[in-house]
Amino acid sequence: MDDHLLVWLTTLDEDRLARVLANRPDAIAAPWPRRLDTLARRLSDNFAVMEVMRGLPLPPLEILQACLVVGERATPDELARFLGVTTAEVLPWLEGLYDQALAWPAPDGRLHLAEAVARWWTAPCGLGEALVSYLDSWTLNAEGLRRISRGLGLSSQGGRRQLMARVTAVLGDAERLADLLREAPDGTVSLLDEFAWDGPVRGVDGNRFVTHGSPEKWAAERGLLYRTQWDIAEMPREVALALRGPDYHAPFTPEPPALGTVPADPAAVDHAMCLAAPHAVDRAAALLENTDKTPLPLLKGGGVGVREVRRVVKETGCAEDEARLLLEVCAVARLLAFDETAGGLIPTKRFDAWRLEDAPARLRALLAAWWRMERSSLRRVSGRYPTVLGDDPAGETVARVRWAVLTTLATLPPDAAYASLPELVQAVHWRAPLLDRELLTECCPAVLAEARLLGLMADDALTDLGRALAALGPSVAGDEQDETVPEVERDPGLVERSVHALAGAQRTALFGTDLTAVVTGPPAAELSSLLDRAADRETKGAASVWRFSSASVRRALDAGYSADSLLEELRAAGTVPQPLAYLVKDVARRHGEVTVTTVGCIIQGSDPGLLAEIAAHRRLARLGLRLLAPTVLAGTAPADRTLAALREAGYAPVPVDDTGEISVRREPASGRLILLPGGRVAELEEPMLSIADPPPDPREHAQRLVRSGPDEHAAGQTWAVIGRLATRLPTAQQSLLGFVVDRGVRALITLSDGLTATISHGELRRGVLDAWCEEAGDYLEFPLAEIASVTSG
Fold it and tell me: What is the per-residue pLDDT across 9-61, written as a single tens digit (0 to 9) for each?
């Protein structure tokens, strides 16, 4: 923990502290800190600081680098002088860094940085370490310092500190360094300029550092370069700054680069959104229905092969880009998962619940999954698409590229579209400079293509749906592995836009006497699903056409429809002409002329009278027995249940080996059952997704932290207090409980009344252990005398 940070936090009022907590929700995540010293440790956590820095635009990162270069004398005025701007231009960005707890002012006005900031840049502004780190290194002894002093024409008398001060004064002074370089061998200035502007670390020829008269040897003898390895040399920070000259200023780019735009028609963009959004929901449902019929196998190395993707494309009528994107989105949304029994990807229980939601909710589930997806479906690497659902080495960085691209596009007015891709990449880089530039350039076209397929972009401009999603930012995206409902799905703005995007979906069709159905516009998912079950899709686009045939109608009847129920649903979608009604009824009349039955088991016997008795037995009616022949019974129950029932009824059957494998479909054991089209049953005992806990309230935590006092427990007294009061515990368990207090470790405790709790982050207070309880989601008090056992959590 940084003591300077704690001192600064104690000076903040409630409003300012709430602002810091709002920008750093990681610091108040459960179990939330109870005092400012704990908060300071959370805020200065190296990983958390680096995570915050990854979301910063370019100007605050430039300021942080400048602070590292200026060092201990960094103040707003000194910082502005080094950047070549006024203090007023720097202060707003500094305030933003204060609100992120990445930097804070000391009482004397100097700036302090979080320790992790220095770990991110080893060479801020392209400058090396301070000269003192080289002069005070163990690799340079006192004689080496004297040799450098003599090379600079300085006195070699005095102690190490005196020698270091003299050398630093010369090498950090631009005028004295310029005088020194006038005596340098030819090529020295160009060599040093390369280190000063393109260093500070460069590969060198080690032999030249021991060759008399070479620029490398001359520079090394005077402390201008330091060879850390035989073929690696470095230039100290002060030397590089002196060589860059007094007119040098560190880069500072407070304004984003210009992003060229072209006019866009908001009405046309909105129309394109209303076409693409329902189409995405419709195609996602078609893909999931297809995998329900034919599981999607995975390759040995993971992912779905190209051959299988093309099969799905052919069977569903999707474009290949749509199939690739929606398969990965559905997997992230937990609508599709691998099943060992099926041997491939099949729809999950969540799909049954998802298809019963209204269309806007289905769309939001897909958008939320895409927003947090850690791969790019349409990114081409070496001219080829990656394997669908394969591992992506870029992982979470791809999601960050997606967030940065959409938030950059959201800065454009509604009637403007970006003019060129290179300019867009440049603007995105300003907003997220720590993203890998090559990966950004590679992923940006893929992100735009995916956004168009989902209705988030049209004509190179963001739609209202895209703006609503971009406004949420990355903070609510969630993790790809997160099982909770992301806030994205419940955002009021996105709910409103999704309803509008699907409002134009057609729910009626024009049925022709030529046995076709035409939908003029984007079909609603329900209508598309009905027509896909009873007809074959021929074309899609501005108008979609389906054609009915004997085979397609028979497919619907096989799925559980009767002639009357099918015609009833078709009439709800439009006027059914007489030829279509005749076709449905004619196919239904011949449907079932030949039947194929699946049986659970076969019962055979030599006595026809005995088998007739068993078939008529009332207690065995649940087995679904029927006579196929005088000595053969067929039952619907499996063999083990049939054996048990017959023995319970007083018979003595024996099992025999089957001649073939019997497949029995298990019905849902419990829960609310809903009949879906085609006879499917959805078991909705569990919700589609668990609901995430609401985010912590920064204002509430700020009020509590401002009122909190110092820890009443004296350091070093933990073991004495536990040993005196936790008398039910053996010594080893008392020690473990001490770690819960002193180190915040996790443990499972059992009280004398048998209650158990998983605790951590404990504090001792007046004979009780005040600790975070995971089961309660809050801090609870446990009397030390009542704790009967402690085990590692």
Answer: 999 999 999 999 999 988 998 888 988 988 999 999 999 999 999 989 999 99
Match 């709430």 to its residue by tokens.
18
Tokens 């631009």 found at? 174
Structure tokens at 376: 């790019």
Phi/psi at 667 (5° precision): -80, 155
pLDDT at 547 over 60: yes
First to last CA, the chain: 26
Radius of gyration of the chain measured on its C-alpha atoms: 36
Summarised one tens digit per residue, pLDDT across range 467-477 is 999 998 887 76
Among 328, 330, 294, 300, residue whose Cα is nearest residue 312: 294
Nearest to 328 by CA among 276, 391, 269, 274: 391
For 17, half-sphere exposure in the C-beta direction (CA atoms, 13 angstrom radius) is 26
Q: How far apart are CA 94 and CA 72, in angstroms?
A: 16
Residues 141-199 pLDDT 10s: 888 888 888 888 888 888 888 889 988 898 888 888 888 898 889 999 999 999 999 98
As a whole number of angstroms, the distance between CA 129 and CA 114 comes to 18
Tokens of 10: 């104690």
Q: What angle do CA 23, 25, 29 make, to 5 degrees?
A: 165
Residue 220 neighbours by CB under 8 Å, 6+ apart = 209, 226, 227, 233
Please, which pLDDT band fits residue 595 given cuts at 50, 70 and 90? low
Structure tokens at 365: 């589930």
* Contact criterion met (CB below 8 Å) for 311 and 372: no
Of 554, 538, 502, nearest to 523 (Cα)?
Answer: 502
Q: Rounded to whole angstroms, what are the CA distances from 670 to 341, 666, 674?
A: 21, 12, 12
Chain mean pLDDT for the chain: 86
Structural tokens at position 782: 């446990």
Task: Pick the closest to residue 497 from 714, 709, 663, 270 (CA basis).
Answer: 270
**To which residue do tokens 């997220």 refer?**
432
Q: Provide the whole-model pTM.
A: 0.77
